[in-house]
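ok so for the tutorial part 2 we go from a plain amino acid sequence to predicted structure tokens. step 1 is just haveing the sequence, like this:
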Amino acid sequence: MCQRDIETRLGLTHPTVSSILNRLEEKRMVRTEPLAEDRRYKKIELTEASRHIADQIQEKINRISRELLQGVTPEEEKEFIKTLNLIIQNTK
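step 2 — the prediction. this is what the tokens look like for a chain of 92 residues:
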């Protein structure tokens, strides 16, 4: 992932993302390096420590999702997600 991708997807400014990435690098949560083809852009990689944290977060998300969706059929879940995505699109 590149810094520009984060800026675009999250709607954040370049200085904001740069500041966040600098702090994450200081905490050894990410590594950044300029792209070989265009050194103006930074490639961002998670470190082993941050991958471990991401795995723990994903496990919790999965557990909570299973609890919330107990008794919900796959069709109902699909329709619910479709509706949520429509709501999100309407807020943009």
